[in-house]
Specification:
By secondary structure, the chain is mainly β. It contains one helix and 17 strands.
Length: 282
């Protein structure tokens, strides 16, 4: 049974309008259900036998109180990747109050520069059906505009952001087409072009940002402050040291929870909790 959701795709033919489409998904094992759909990966858009399409890609990091976390790359750049019916995109986690940082990893094909970015995203609140939430999109001419969109997405409630990207370069083409990317781990279908009544498959690399519901129960006050104020609610501060190094952290802590004895723990990033190496003396 076909599943209709609200992913929107870029316009690559001049007269085509953007319409709701089917998306992820459409795994390789489901292609038999779409025998009349044209695959953009295989669709000839150039007389040059060596013609190359650009590749879309991006990296995500989380800025937590001024500290950048590890980087993840968007879904596969491999043109031949076996696309799954289930969501298999890379995921990064964030706390409420953090910020997303996005970097460009796209590359040109037969053109000399990327001339357009199709950036799409949606937010699914925790516990809700992802297919009931609309995907928002924008066509922009530079990656600075992509950054402006993605890095201003608010991380203020528990849920998941899905972020998609497609790019176009300025390579010459035929049939009034444009040289859009055809890589990624998401296959979608656009039925808005009357020249292709059964629709056409498009591809996007995707990455996810999973947002926690609220910051930690304890918050450090900024240096020089002796009284807690509500605007100090930010993500927990991160301290970085070399292996074997002792970190002395002096902070004033405000407890917004119930009166009780609280264990003060720490973690080595990427190595799990290790309270044995931590102390709450003083």
């Amino acid at each position: 049974m076909k599943r209709y959701i609200s992913i929107l795709l870029m316009v690559i033919f001049v007269a085509t309008s953007v319409l709701p489409v089917l998306a992820d998904g459409i795994g390789n094992n489901e292609l038999k259900n779409y025998l009349g759909v044209i695959n953009y990966r295989d669709f000839s858009i150039s007389n040059n036998l060596d013609h190359l399409r650009p590749k879309a890609g991006f990296a995500l990091q989380i800025n937590s109180n001024g500290v950048l976390g590890n980087e993840i790359l968007s879904g596969s750049w491999d043109m031949e990747k076996n696309i799954l019916s289930i969501q298999d995109s890379p995921k990064i986690t964030a706390n409420a109050g953090d910020k997303i940082v996005i970097s460009d990893r796209s590359s040109i094909g037969s053109g000399s520069k990327i001339t357009q970015y199709d950036v799409q995203y949606r937010f699914i609140p925790k516990g809700e059906n992802r297919e009931t939430h609309e995907i928002k999109y924008a066509f922009v001419n530079n990656f600075a505009s992509v950054k402006n969109i993605v890095e201003n997405l608010p991380l203020n409630q528990a849920g998941t952001y899905e972020i998609f990207l497609c790019v176009m370069d300025n390579a010459p083409t035929i049939f009034g087409t444009a040289n859009w990317s055809a890589n990624g781990n998401i296959r979608s279908i656009n039925t808005g072009n009357p020249n292709f009544p059964e629709g056409m498959f498009w591809y996007f690399p995707e990455a996810l940002v999973e947002v926690g519901g609220s910051p930690a129960d304890f918050y450090p006050t900024p240096e020089g402050e002796s009284e807690w104020r509500e605007e100090f609610i930010i993500s927990p501060k991160t301290y970085i040291g070399e292996v074997g190094q002792t970190l002395n952290i002096s902070v004033n802590l405000y407890n917004q929870g119930e009166e009780d004895i609280t264990d003060f723990g720490c973690t080595w990033y990427g190595a799990g909790w290790d309270n044995i190496l931590c102390s709450n003396e003083g």
